[in-house]
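job 3f2a | input accepted
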Amino acid sequence: MSRSSSEAEYKALASLVCELQWLQYLCDDLHTNISGSFVVYCDNKSVICIAKNPTFYERTKHIEIDCHFVQTKLQEGLIHLILVSSSNKVVDMLIKPLHPRLFRDNLSKLNMKDIHVSACGWLLDDKNILI
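job 3f2a | predicted structure (131 res):
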């Protein structure tokens, strides 16, 4: 059971890094060279700060093994962490209320189509007025 969302996401990051390490070993066994780091997109600033900070605090004591593992792989260059900005988090529209403009922007990124438009033969604008 995680004590915070950062802890849960850090455990997920550690699990991902384990899988990427396994993938790296598999490619080495198959004599396939993977050049560069695996790019990992993260939407939690505190997770990135914990991963890049070699100092452990009282609040990270319970995930210290995961911290050491992720930090080691980050320093070795296996992964490269990139922060995802809030405007690019399309999944937010499914889990929290958003401003209508941001909701419409995220909806357009999903390329969803209204299947009822072609069946009815008419279109509605944003205010549900026939056009």
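job 3f2a | Residues 20 and 38 are 8 Å apart (CA to CA).
job 3f2a | closed
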